[in-house]
Amino acid sequence: MIFSPFNFKNLGDVKAECEKLGLNLHFSENLEILKRKVNVNGVTIHNSLAVHPMEGSDGNEDGSPGELTIRRSLRNARGGAGLIWFEAIAVVPEGRASTHQLMINQENKDNFKKLVEDMRSEARKSNDQDFELVIIAQLTHSGRFSRPKGILEPVIGCHDPHMDTKYNVSPDAPIVTDDKLEALEDKFVEAARLAKEVGFDGVDIKGCHKYLASELLGAFTREGKYGGTFEGRTRFLLNIVDKVRKAVGDKFIIGSRLNIYDGIPYPYGFGVDKEDVNKFDESEPLKLTGKLREKGVNIINVTMGTPYLNPHVNRPFDKGGYIPNEHPLEGVARLANGIEKMQKAYPDLPIVGTGYSWLREFSPYLAAGSLENGNATLIGYGRQGIAYPDFAKDILAGGLKRNKCCISCSKCADLLRTGQHSGCVVRDSEIYAPIYVKKFKNNA
User: Fold this and answer.
1) CB neighbours of residue 185 within 10 Å
2) When comparing pLDDT for 213 and 442, which is higher?
3) What is the mean pLDDT of residues 321-331?
4) Fewer beta carbons within 10 Å, N or C terminal of the chain?
């Protein structure tokens, strides 16, 4: 398939291109379905729209929310989505992705408490009187992408020649020990307790994009109890879920933003066909989802790929540093079809869909079609939430406006990958264009 940037004038054009490419995507103009409330572990989400955890790299040095973190969070809270899947919060200092990644602890928990309270207040004032925002905190360890002091200090779950080569990691570099991983499980528990204390509705044990827990899912070559077999490779994630559930009780939401396909050749990628890296093998992701459900996970937020190696897989783009060997619609379909397989296998488990932003103003029709066909329970937007914080209000009022949509230019990702404060350079240019120019144009 030949790469082509977004060039559609109407929904008919999108459908025609899908048919031409042989892609199975479901569209519906019944946007009313997106107003449907969703129950997750006894908590009611006001509609079927969610904001994905898009990190801004703008926390304070102590890990508390910074000025821009607060600004972004309140803009999203006013935007009308029923669920905010709050951005990555590190559980230990050495697991931070940058000096400005959020991190929760006893010393700064009151800052998080105030932000959560302010988000709920802004959501009530800006939406229906009975609107109660649901907020899930993403807990993370950045693993091989850890930069706690601004330079790469990788905590490696297993060696991967694809990742090691790109990031100049020696194949002889030590991997994190079993004892260290076991100790880290308890750090996730501590962070989950604090998240509950400050008022989050739930936590996400992050298992995506080749951060530590995600890398271990593909650790076929790792020896010891956290690698090799399916039981070993899933042990870290499942142990954390098990321990967190015991610590927070039954009524608190536990979720996971989960990679179901890494797009990295076997034996280094999870959910990948052993013979063809381009094929999704759902057998282990489905098995893991069943295990997570048994352990008490109430919601799964599905994604694929890694922004550090193959970003077109997890966020189809028009511009992104390289030209993919596929049409972006193929990436949209890969995500949509993979999510459908997960949801159809577990129809009673709420699944949050991913991969809509590239379609701009036509994305709500794919979202509505996904819900109508039972292919997802909620529809999540990532980049769109940065570019267009009131996207949910506009969708529920009749549709998105093209001149407010994300244009999938990847500038927000460029900022994040280099440790800069990240946001939409195009739609929020007053704040982020000067940061982008200073970092990239002046250093050209």
Assistant:
1) 20
2) 213
3) 97
4) C
**Residues 356-394 pLDDT 10s:** 999 999 999 999 999 999 999 999 999 999 999 999 999
Q: For the whole model, what pTM was predicted?
A: 0.98
Question: CA–CA separation, 393 vs 380, rounded Å?
Answer: 14
Which residue has tokens 């709420």? 350
Q: What count of other Cβ atoms lies within 10 Å of the Cβ of residue 276?
A: 11
Mean pLDDT of 282-307: 98
Domains, the chain, with CATH or none: 11-409 (3.20.20.70)
CA distance linking residue 369 with residue 372, whole number of Å? 5
Give the distance, in angstroms, between the CA of residue 277 and the centroid of all CA atoms in the same chain.
Answer: 22
Cβ–Cβ under 8 Å, residues 72 and 415: no
Give yes or no for residue 129 having a pLDDT over 90: no
How many angstroms separate the CA atoms of 317 and 436, rounded? 18
Residue 422, CB half-sphere, CA atoms under 13 Å: how many? 23
Q: Three-class SS string for the chain?
A: CCCCCCCCCCHHHHHHHHHHHCCCCCCCCCHHHHHCCEEECCEEECCCEEECCCCCCCCCCCCCCCHHHHHHHHHHHHCCCCEEEEEEEECCHHHCCCCCCEECCCCCHHHHHHHHHHHHHHHHHHCCCCCCCEEEEEEECCHHHCCCCCCCCCCCCCCCHHHHHHCCCCCCCCCCCHHHHHHHHHHHHHHHHHHHHHCCCEEEECECCCCHHHHHHCCCCCCCCCCCCHHHHHHHHHHHHHHHHHHHCCCCEEEEEEEEECCCCCCCCCCECCCCCCCECCHHHHHHHHHHHHHCCCEEEEEECCCCCCHHHHCCCCCCCCCCCCCHHHHHHHHHHHHHHHHHHCCCCCEEECCCHHHHHHHHHHHHHHHHCCCCCEEEECHHHHHCCCHHHHHHCCCCCHHHCCCCCCHHHHHHHCCCCCCCCCCCHHHHHHHHHHHHHCCC
Per-residue pLDDT, averaged over 408-427, amounts to: 96
- Token digits of residue 2: 């030949």
Q: What's the CA dihedral at 374, 218, 252, 239 to 10 degrees?
A: 140
C-alpha dist (Å) from residue 348 to 41, 48, 237, 299, 415: 11, 15, 22, 10, 38
Residue entry with tokens 């801004």 = 56
Quote the tokens at residue 60: 């304070």
Phi, psi torsion values for 36, nearest 5 degrees: -60, 130
For residue 402, how far is the Cα from the chain centroid?
24
